[in-house]
Amino acid sequence: SIGKMAASFGNKNKIPVVATFHSQFKQDFMRATKSKLVTKILLKIITKVFNRANLLLTMNPKCSEIIKSYGYKGRIELLPNGTDLAPNQNLTDLIAKIKKINNLTDEKILINIGRLTKLKNIDLVIDSCKILKQENFHFKLFIVGGGQDEKYFKKKVNANNLSKEIVFVGKILDQSLKSAYLASADLNVFPSFYDTDGIVKIEAAAFETPTLFAKGSVASSSCIDGVNGYIADAEPNSFAKKIIEIFNDTNYSTVCKRAKNDLYLSWDGVVQKLLNIYFKEKKND
User: What is the pLDDT of residues 89-122, one digit of tens each?
Assistant: First the structure.
């Protein structure tokens, strides 16, 4: 309704209308209605609103493909997400504190940050950790966040005898502490098929922490496997095998640096990119 109002106001006052696309509406509608027909109707309605815009902004090529599959016919410009986490801050004391509290020695540190919901495919992470333990891979996984399925995941971790390997950190509101966890991590595991981009991959990249994505996920479209991040089949054995391979790869440190170079972007940088898009539009007019 607000989109319709904005489009009408823009058209009436000859003001360009810019829309943004950052949600997988088809998944959301299908999950809410359980009906393919209703989902099709809702997508048609919402795409009609998008088609009234002069320009649509979205984060990556895969998102562009999705909105086109809904029926969007207009122009698209890519505008990635950013982060306000500063990569050059002094985190030495906080990192030391994290390692002391968790009795860390030579473990490989994995991290997963986000809402604790089954939508984020955290089951895959836990199932992969079970295999890692069976393979005698020395690791610690920090799960950061809270959500409606937190009790479910904690119960699953205990049932699989992984309470020593997996730590539920809870929500972190302090940005410096969040930065310290990301900086201390060796790998960010992000197997979500629900997220369209995932700011956490940018936050991790700020501290040269690469991300492991699930193959075929929208969020993985900005990653080149083995270059600026990693991609594995969304299956526990494949995911666990990939994690072991990552830390046996002599190219790992190069991937860490490329992750920062290719994926990190501050919100100031995003604003500058947006200004460039607007000025280009104005010039074309």
Answer: 899 999 999 999 999 989 999 999 999 999 999 9
Query: What HEC string does the chain produce?
Result: CHHHHHHHHHHHHCCCCEEEECCCHHHHHHHHHCCHHHHHHHHHHHHHHHCCCCEEEECCHHHHHHHHHHCCCCCEEECCCCECCCCCCCCHHHHHHHHHHCCCCCCEEEEEECCCCHHHCHHHHHHHHHHHHHCCCCEEEEEECCCCCHHHHHHHHHHCCCCCCEEEEECCCCHHHHHHHHHHCCEEEECCCCCCCCHHHHHHHCCCCCEEEECCCHHHHHCCECCCEEEECCCHHHHHHHHHHHHHCCCHHHHHHHHHHHHCCEHHHHHHHHHHHHHHHHHHC
List the structure tokens of 271. Answer: 């604003």
CA distance 185 to 150: 22
pTM summary value:
0.90
Share of the chain above pLDDT 70, in %: 98
Task: Compute the mean pLDDT over every residue in the chain, rounded to the nearest whole number.
Answer: 94
Are the C-beta atoms of residues 153 and 169 closer than 8 Å to each other? no
How many Å apart are CA 223 and CA 26, to the nearest integer?
24
Evaluate whether 218 touches 195 at the Cβ level (below 8 Å): yes
Written as six digits, the tokens of 78 are: 């890519």
- Quick check: 283 pLDDT over 80? no
- Tens-place pLDDT, residues 52-66: 999 999 999 999 999
- Number of neighbouring beta carbons within 10 Å of residue 250: 6
Q: Residue 112 pairs with which residues in a beta bridge? A: 143
